């Protein structure tokens, strides 16, 4: 018997971080050299979970939509790309230092955290007013006003506890490197700060080669790099991260309807992968980019509060127009469909864009936080009965790093060999493992801690009738079934179809 599973927010971030390291999900990069700040490596179980999330997103975009195709653009791009996009001149964070602690902070983050405090204290109107005022000041590039707002709100340095702040200044977030090994005067080449521009510069290449008609989308998964000064909260904010983006090109005038469509679709995706609806919310942007018509974040309630995991933006024709201007190459699309208002073809125009952009690492962290579960269970009977806390990862079976673990009950009597036969049969379809070491209870616990949905036990009866006991991770219920039924049983539970049906 057991008590209900504890909510995900009962776990502190430190518990998640410790679990991620101990069980092979995430390691600090270069840890033997004391680590590189805000850079992380994914371990054996982490890379499986992350790859499953990426593959799920990819297939949900390109397989379920006949008008979305894929792209894998290079990280290095012509430097003029970032001039056209505005990153060279305007990709900045407002930074402020505390004179006593010498610590550096993002001014907007300090204000956002203060607004979150008001919301938690039951005064959401005051928090919203603070966020709106911050947005107004940043839009006007009034950095002195931002500093004064911090002072007026009596925001103190978490380290020194004082409010002795420097002036606010802007810091460009792009990493740059030398563009030529032989020409020292060559312009710098940037590590891309976003993956979207690789899609925009390939708009016509993809449209023509894939024979797509408006509306259509281009999806991409790839690394991006930002020189974050304030990188924290584990893998939530990193200097090297992975984005899963889709740019959807539409006829001007239809972008509003498509924005609403993708906003709803993306919310359904996060619920389908297992994130609690109660822990998801939309947050409309108070500060819009000058080219944007609308922007909203899908936020998840992490142990450190609601934070963005995905953004949906109506970008207008800004990006393609900018690239057309700077490259002097037309980025127009010829639309042969008939405009019912004029009775003529729509003709040439630069499409508008609706963007969906989800952070693979943030989705990974949200999934890990959601799955981290603890429950009180009672084992044994009579005087031998004992109560203990069980910790496990309640991952959707389709996302679990390992789908099934096969346990010979003892390491003799032909049971290990039979377990190996089952492994050899299932390994072509699923990620499975064989484990022989320690008592069966300890083996269950190890698999629970990495989220394995099924444990298959080979015992004496197996050798007689080719049946095994299958133990369910979440309920701990045990079912006896023929070995011949295992493939279909596991396949039904771990299929992406179970998730796709909810979309």
TrEMBL record:
It is found in: Cytoplasm. Coiled coil: none annotated. PROSITE patterns: AA_TRNA_LIGASE_II. ATP binds at residues 226-228, 236-241, 308-309, 359-362. Residues 15-401 form the Aminoacyl-transfer RNA synthetases class-II family profile domain. HAMAP family: Gly_tRNA_synth_B. This is Glycine--tRNA ligase. The lineage of its organism: Bacteria, Pseudomonadati, Bacteroidota, Cytophagia, Cytophagales.
């Amino acid at each position: 018997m057991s008590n209900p599973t504890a909510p995900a927010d009962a776990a502190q971030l430190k518990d998640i971080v410790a679990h991620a390291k101990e069980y092979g999900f995430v390691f600090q990069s270069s840890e033997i050299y004391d680590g590189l700040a805000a850079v992380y490596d994914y371990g054996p179980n982490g890379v499986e979970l992350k790859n499953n999330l990426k593959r799920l997103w990819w297939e949900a975009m390109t397989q379920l939509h006949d008008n979305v195709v894929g792209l894998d653009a290079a990280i290095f791009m012509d430097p003029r790309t970032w001039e056209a996009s505005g990153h060279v001149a305007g990709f900045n964070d407002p930074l402020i230092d505390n004179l006593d602690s010498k610590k550096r902070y993002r001014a907007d983050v300090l204000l956002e955290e203060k607004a979150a405090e008001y919301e938690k204290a039951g005064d959401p109107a005051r928090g919203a007013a603070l966020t709106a005022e911050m947005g107004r000041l940043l839009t006007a590039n009034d950095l002195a006003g931002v500093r004064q707002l911090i002072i007026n709100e009596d925001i103190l340095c978490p380290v020194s506890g004082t409010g002795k702040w420097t002036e606010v200044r802007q810091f460009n977030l792009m990493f740059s490197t030398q563009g030529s090994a032989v020409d020292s005067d060559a312009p710098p080449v940037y590590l891309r700060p976003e993956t979207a521009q690789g899609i925009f510069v390939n708009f016509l290449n993809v449209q023509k080669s894939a024979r797509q008609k408006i509306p259509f989308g281009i999806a991409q998964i790839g690394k991006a790099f930002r020189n974050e000064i304030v990188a924290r909260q584990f893998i939530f904010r990193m200097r090297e991260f992975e984005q899963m983006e889709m740019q959807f090109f539409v006829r001007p005038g239809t972008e509003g309807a498509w924005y609403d469509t993708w906003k709803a679709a993306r919310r359904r995706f996060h619920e389908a992968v297992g994130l609690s609806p109660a822990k998801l919310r939309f947050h409309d942007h108070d500060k819009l980019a000058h080219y944007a018509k609308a922007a909203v974040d899908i936020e998840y309630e992490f142990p450190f509060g609601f934070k963005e995991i995905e953004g949906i933006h109506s970008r207008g024709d800004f990006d393609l127009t900018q690239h057309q201007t700077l490259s002097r190459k037309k980025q127009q699309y010829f639309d042969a469909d008939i405009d019912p208002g004029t009775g003529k073809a729509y003709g040439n125009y630069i499409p508008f864009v609706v963007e969906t952009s989800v952070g693979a690492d943030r989705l990974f962290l949200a999934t890990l936080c959601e799955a981290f579960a603890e429950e009180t269970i009672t084992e044994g009977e009579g005087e031998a009965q004992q109560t203990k806390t069980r910790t496990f990862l309640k991952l959707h079976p389709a996302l679990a790093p390992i789908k099934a673990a096969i346990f010979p009950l003892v390491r003799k009597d032909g049971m290990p060999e039979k377990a190996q036969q089952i492994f050899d049969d299932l390994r072509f379809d699923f990620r499975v493992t064989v484990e022989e070491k320690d008592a069966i209870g300890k083996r269950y616990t190890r698999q629970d801690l990495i989220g394995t949905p099924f444990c298959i036990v080979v015992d004496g009866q197996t050798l007689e009738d080719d049946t095994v006991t299958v133990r369910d991770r979440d309920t701990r219920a045990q079912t006896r079934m023929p070995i011949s039924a295992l493939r279909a049983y596991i396949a039904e539970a771990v299929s992406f179809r179970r998730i796709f049906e909810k979309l």
